Amino acid sequence: MSERPATPRWTRRLLAGGVPGNRALTSTFGVVLLVLLAVQVLSAVWFALLSYNVATPGGPIFQVVRPVHFFVGFLLFPLIGVKLASTGYRFARYYSRGRAYREAGAPRPVLRLIAPLLVLSTVVLFASGVEMWSFRNDFGVTWITVHDLSAFTFVALLLVHVVYHAREAQREALKDARAPAAGAITRRALLGGGAVAGLTLAVGAAQWPSAALSFLAPRRAGDAALDFPVMNYEGGGQRVDVARWRLAVTGEVANPLLLSLDDVMRLPTEEHRYGIDCVTGWTAVRTWRGVPVARLLDMAGIRAAATHVQVRSTSGYHWDHHLDSLRQSGALLVTHVDGVVLNDDHGYPLRLMIPGVTGQSNIKWVDGLMVGSGTPENYLGAHTTWGNQPVSGYFLPRNPAGMRP
Fold first, then answer.
1. What is the tens place of the pLDDT at every residue in 156-165?
2. What's the gap between Cα 250 and its chain centre?
3. pLDDT in tens, 222-258
């Protein structure tokens, strides 16, 4: 007769608590996760509003929101892993007819119904987040849409989960803190180990509090003028034929402009130093030289009804900016970076740069400023449709104007 395999010591200690120990572990992690997830959901809302050009009433700026969202997201990985393992173990013991777990009672029908969906949405949400962070865009999958839709599903299911469990989890966590059930040392070790693992992962991936410590970051800026990542949200890289290229300023203006590159280069320029911040996590601080957008708008004589400007690229990609953003100091159509002329990859002959605005809306290869009135277009709707427009080139026309053959 064969002997039963020995159970590892740490497993015996963890399982020694039985149903009370499992409940305590799940509840303690649940309380910790609820706090972190509340921060993550709030930062996600701000991240979306700032990234999709939706007007916000003020509050945290992108340079704060993005690091928080990335840092907390990576911190959550091991903690959620333990929570799912603990809950999964309880479900497995109940359905495999473990006596103590059967006597503890069945999970509520609603929770049994949503549990698989909650687990699935959690896995998809975090996996798609990592894919977007790495900017690999593997398999041709629309990751922005997947991430957004899984986030909506996750939050809806999480609210139901919290309604049923919040008070019980708080009570069980406090009870275990005051009078620990068996296996308490292992539970504390799991919580501490999960926190350390999460912090290590967060510091290594989020490029905060220091990019130098982010050993997992897939992209980061170097020291040379043009040594920062090339992220083509704009429908594909362009090589502009400057002999054919013109900068058009049209729309709600009294004097429409059509300028060659020589015309633009004869205009007065300014230099401003600030960072370009990519939604994937990296920042590059540079000195940007170019023509102030406000000067071009003044030359065109914008009408009183004007409220926004659609900045267009030779790729067909475009983004609406509020007029106040383009009139602020430092908003430039850039020709040089740290004294070096732009190259094709970084938007030659002109790229837009606005302080504090996400990189995806700082258009490269600019060939048009279309002044408009009324409400600016935003991209929240575009990013939640089934298509990865910024990466796949949804806005890319068949024959981009000014592109060399």
1. 999 999 998 8
2. 33
3. 999 999 988 775 556 788 999 999 999 999 999 999 9
Q: Give the whole-angstrom CA distance, residue 146 versus residue 128.
A: 7
Of 5-9, 144-148, 285-289, 314-318, the range with the highest mean pLDDT is 285-289
What is this structure's pTM? Answer: 0.80
Nearest by Cα to 111 from 168, 184, 187: 168
Query: Rg (Cα) of the chain, in Å, rounded?
Result: 26
